[in-house]
Design goal:
5-stranded parallel β-sheet, Sig_transdc_resp-reg_receiver, Arc Repressor Mutant, subunit A, Rossmann fold, transcription, 2 domains, 11 helices, DNA-binding
């Protein structure tokens, strides 16, 4: 099996290459630090399977997956990321990815997952599947947010960041936000850091106050 590894962190790329090359039926044929290089290597190396990171410079994993599946639909793509967020699963699967795994997976389980996808199966871990089902159920029960689109885009905030910001304003802690929005606590922390940066504030109280003063919430 010819495998392409795509990740913007060199340590992860090299470590995965060493571990997976030890498998008797797997040959790592290329390493890419962003989606653009991944597409180029797919053209030249024609891998059977691509392990694709999501957040990368130049071209992210979702866009790279889309281009790869458009040009070479026979190449199978597994999204490999640290972000345990449902929307990434939906985005990746909707454009043709065959699997989704978290980087915390054991190397032997990763190799087994690659083999399953290579054989034509779709791979979604049980914990991710539960989150996906929960999100679908939540969406079916909860009306869409009433925040006008023009307000969501103030300060460059994404809709998800506005949701996290509303939770901050409601006084929720990171764990409570994670449970409410079906995110990992690490992802919540990333969103909060991004919110602070975009609003040019340094704590929750100032973030919530500024958002309310400027009409974001």
């Amino acid at each position: 099996m010819r495998l392409l590894l795509v990740d913007d962190q060199e340590l992860i790329r090299e470590s995965l290459s060493i571990v997976l090359n030890m498998e008797p039926d797997i040959e790592v044929v290329g390493l890419a630090e962003n989606g653009e290089i991944a597409v180029e290597l797919c053209a030249s190396e024609q891998p059977d399977v691509v392990l694709m990171d999501i957040h990368m410079p130049v071209m992210n994993g979702v866009e790279a997956t889309k281009r790869i599946k458009q040009q070479w639909p026979h190449i199978r793509v597994i999204i490999l990321t640290t972000f345990q967020e449902v929307q990434y699963v939906v985005d990746a699967l909707s454009i043709g990815a065959e699997g989704y795994l978290l980087k915390a997976i054991h190397p032997k389980d990763l190799a087994a997952g690659i083999r399953l996808v290579w054989k034509g199966e779709t791979l979604i871990p049980q914990d991710i599947a539960k989150l996906l089902v929960s999100q679908i159920n939540m969406n079916s029960l909860t009306p869409e947010t009433n925040i006008p689109k023009k307000e969501r885009t103030k300060f460059g905030l994404t809709e998800r960041e506005v949701e996290v910001l509303q939770c901050l304003a409601d006084g929720l802690h990171n764990k409570e936000i994670a449970e409410k929005l079906f995110l990992s606590e690490g992802t919540v922390k990333n969103y909060i850091s991004s919110i602070y940066s975009k609003l040019d504030v340094h704590d929750r109280l100032k973030a919530a106050k500024k958002a309310q003063e400027k009409g974001v919430l």
